[in-house]
Amino acid sequence: MTEAKTEVPLTPKLLALDPQQESEFKKKVQQAKKNRASKASRFAPGVIYVGHLPVGLFEPQLKAYFEQFGKVLRLRLSRSKKTGGSKGYAFIEFDCDEVARIVAETMNNYLMGERLIKCHVVPPEKVHEELFNGSQRGFSKPSFPAVSRYNKPHSQEDLVKMGKNLVRKEVKLRKRLSEKGIDYDFPGFDTTPVCTPSLLERRKSMLVDDEDDDEVTVKMPQKYKDEEEESSEEEEQAKKGE
């Protein structure tokens, strides 16, 4: 019976290829560089996409791992703007496009931390000119992330401002629906404060609590009362006419 391999946590010291794969990779890289040198052509940089990264791999660990393949010029790990956490994919630029191609072939579907790494070469025409902007700067955690901003205690002025923004968005949404010919109505945002005297009086006029039996009686609006009175008067007149 074969012994089961124990799971080893990812650390910078343990990030390495298998010895057999590493020797094969070095042979491929040396052969590629010899072929490029024999053609007397300059090394063009190559960019690879690395996806499905394990949790806990950030810029220092990724750079230390991929530098065993060749010189890493730039590295860009995609992070969330709200939390600063890794999105699980990165772009890495090598000094030689042949090395980048071999790295992509070697690392694609490579098992790392219970995940199969997805890796492929990004064609030069698809590499955005601003892809690596700011990649040389070290990442600093947001001092006031969006989660903290939304969950902080809001003042009355902030609540009024938020209400105005909601109403403005609602108006824009209704306008877009009408422009597309969609006849759909939905409840809007009620920005009236709950504790205003007018709102409380209106609620009192609609509901009457009976303390004896805990029943709630709904008062009919005045216009419905007038209609009922008019209908009763008409019935009485009709009876007298008979």
TrEMBL record:
Keywords: Nucleus, RNA-binding. Residues 205-242 are annotated as: Disordered. GO terms for cellular component: nucleolus. One of its GO terms (molecular function) is RNA binding. Residues 46-124 form the RRM domain. It is found in: Nucleus, Nucleolus. It comes from the Eukaryota. It holds the Pfam family RRM_1. InterPro entries: NIFK_FHA_Ki67-binding, Nucleotide-bd_a/b_plait_sf, RBD_domain_sf, RRM_dom. Residues 227-236 have a biased composition (Acidic residues). This is RRM domain-containing protein. It comes from Knipowitschia caucasica (Caucasian dwarf goby).
